[in-house]
Design goal:
The protein has one domain. 85% of the residues lie in helices and 0% in strands. It has 12 helices and no strands. It is globular.
């Protein structure tokens, strides 16, 4: 089973500008959320204290504020965060495929996303459909494992493996999107289909290594949280307020390292493993038929690829709204 840690880590280091960009965006979002909810809380508390509003109205205001934040977050994720994510994937794919690092990788990634599809939401739609296929294939693998889980101990082991596989599968769709950036195929449906077929031929090294990495990532996050916890304990001796601040700092630090460093590194390893393992393979009908028998979403993707149906923004929104694509 190929892990390609060294190659992937080298690629990760070469794309640190994107990693820094994503960390910066995350910190800004965190600061905005803190100010937003802090302002909402202060306003609600002030109005309650002055008797201007009732508790019921205050509760309604909080619910409305949360709903507005969720709606804005989804919109921002769809049109901004995913664009940054896709651009980063494009740069990783380019470095793995050619060994060259663009001089201005932020601009390069942005241009590559614009070249592949007219709107980023379209690529988002293709990505969501691929995510559904990977999830269905993973469920098929888990189902096979459950057939032999006839004893309690083995059944527990299969459940643990199933959970780990489910977490690992969340990263595989990004590898297939990376393949789309390296493919000369202009029809994104066809490129996505070919990528899924190649994944079907190489799912063992890709998903197996990803599962090991994901387990290691969660273990690392736990170690970080344990190592930083004494900070909150020390501040707790000062006052309860300082203890709360301490835990916020600890949680924020762990979340920043986890989301800003660990997850991008795992993504880079998965993409590198997939592109390297599938480099000498070609999509074949036998594997495609096997996947079609396991995944309804793949049959849908294959139909779009064969009809060479043009990708539209409506397709993207439809795929994003499809409950099968929710992971």
């Amino acid at each position: 089973m190929g892990l390609h840690f060294r190659t992937a880590t080298d690629v990760f280091v070469k794309t640190l500008p994107f990693v820094a960009l994503r960390i910066g965006i995350g910190l800004l979002l965190g600061a905005f959320a803190t100010v937003y909810f802090g302002s909402v809380g202060w306003l609600g508390y002030t109005l309650l204290e002055s008797g201007s509003i009732s508790e019921l109205i205050a509760l309604g205001g909080v619910v409305l504020a949360v709903a507005i934040f969720i709606a804005a977050w989804r919109m921002f994720s769809r049109y901004v965060l995913y664009a940054v994510k896709a651009a980063h994937i494009a740069v990783i794919a380019h470095v793995v495929d050619t060994g060259e690092v663009p001089s201005n990788q932020i601009r390069f990634g942005k241009d590559r996303v614009a070249e592949r599809v007219v709107e980023t939401t379209v690529l988002f739609g293709v990505d969501q459909l691929v995510k559904a296929i990977v999830k269905q294939l993973t469920n098929a693998v888990v189902s096979l494992g459950s057939l032999v889980a006839v004893v309690p101990t083995l059944r527990t082991f299969v459940r643990v493996v199933a959970r780990a596989l489910g977490l690992a599968a969340n990263y595989v769709d990004e590898a297939i999107v990376a393949y789309m950036f390296t493919s000369d195929e202009q029809n994104p449906w066809k490129a996505a289909k070919d990528g899924v077929v190649l994944y079907g031929k190489n799912w063992k090294p890709v998903l197996g290594s990803t599962m090991l990495i994901v387990i290691g990532m969660y273990a690392t996050a736990f170690v970080l949280l344990t190592a930083l916890a004494p900070i909150a304990s020390v501040l707790a001796d000062l006052s309860p307020a300082f203890e709360v601040v301490g835990w916020v700092v600890v949680a924020g630090t762990v979340l920043t390292i986890y989301s800003g460093v660990l997850k991008p590194w795992v993504k880079t390893v998965v993409i590198t493993t997939f592109l390297v393992e599938s480099r000498d393979d070609t999509p074949d009908s036998e594997t495609a038929d096997w996947i079609a028998g396991k995944s309804e979403s793949f049959r849908e993707l294959a139909g779009k690829a064969e009809s060479e149906e043009p990708v539209t923004a409506d397709d993207a929104h439809a795929q994003a709204a499809d409950p099968r694509t929710v992971s």
